[in-house]
Each structure stands twice: as C-alpha cells, then as structure tokens.
Known about the structure:
With about 220 residues, this protein is an alpha/beta fold. The chain is about 50% helix and about 15% strand.
Amino acid sequence: MRIVLVGPPGAGKGTQAAFLAKNLSIPHISTGDLFRANISQGTELGKKAKSYMDAGQLVPDEVTIGMAKDRMEQPDAVNGFLLDGFPRNVSQAEALDVALKADDVTLDAVLDLEVPEDEVVKRIAGRRICRNDSAHVFHVTYKQPKTEGVCDTCGGELYQRDDDKEETVRKRLEVYHTQTEPIIDYYREQGLVVTISALGKVEDVTARAMEALKR
C-alpha cells in the first residue's frame, strides 16, 4: 500500500506511522528522517537543504520532493510506503502525483487522523520533558510523575519546552489549517481520504486505522 498520513500536531502521527508501517510491512518515510539522512550522508540534496537551514530559511519544495522521490524509489519501498510529514501543502501534493505517475504508480489512501483542537492543545501543552534526558517524557494529565516536577527515572527536573507552550501550539495549528489541511480536500476529490478519530488508546487508534484502510 502507498499511504499518506495527515493530521494536526499532537494527533500521534509518528506513533501511528510506526505501528501501521510495521503491520503493513512497508517503510515509514518521515520528512525529519529524510532530512537527517541526506544531511548526514552528504548527498547533493542534503547539502542544499543544509545551506537553507543554516541560513535560517525554509527548504524549497523541490529539495524536499527530490529527497522523498529518491527514498520512494529504494528497494524496500517497491511494494509500498507510508509518508509522514510529506506532502505538507497542495503544491507538494501535486508534485508527488507527478512523481508517482512518472513511475506508473498511484496512492492507495490518505489517512486523516482527526483530533479536536482543544485536545491537541491539551496533549502538547501538558507535556513535560526531563532536562537530563529528553527521552523521559511525562504529562500533567496522562502520565503524571510520582513527584511533581521530578523525573521518575533519573530524578531530573521536568520542564515545558517553548514549542509545547499553548500560545506556540495554537500558532502551529494555524499553520496546519492554512498550509497542510487543504491537501485533505485535494485528495478527497480523488476519492483517497479515509478519516478516523485519533482519540483513545494508541492500540485502539491503530486498529481503527487498519480497519479503515482495509475498506
């Protein structure tokens, strides 16, 4: 299967992408991983991306699209892939269609993870990270530490990242609504969109997604 995963920040895309890719035996292709891999390997596209990033500029669509196209043409993606974080806007979606058509393949589904905006804010703004190890993550509602402000694992101080503050989260949501959400309508016109609720336990959302994709 060839799938695009979309949804607002805090919808659990990364978590669901990993589970779905494993269940479907297809590679999980995320924009972040593409950038890191190309930059660390010193590819031409990686060098271009780094030059923009070092200058504090957005990486042009054609560079991102080039990275995605290269990755989708790798042997492990012959039977399908799951795209997470790409396409990010309609122009990228159009370019993806052109790239796939050139290889005589098409997308099978666009999985839209739906979460109410207030829940997104609650999920992200409630996160607390350990200063000693960013892998130790807690939540003021869903995963409270035994002692407030203290990491259960190492005793480090828990803090709220600037990116997780409510004001920042709402700005990120505005960007999502303006830039990324329009791709849902773009793909809906092609009959590809499958929308599911991303509320509830991780395993329940995965089961919901698998059932929707089978249909």
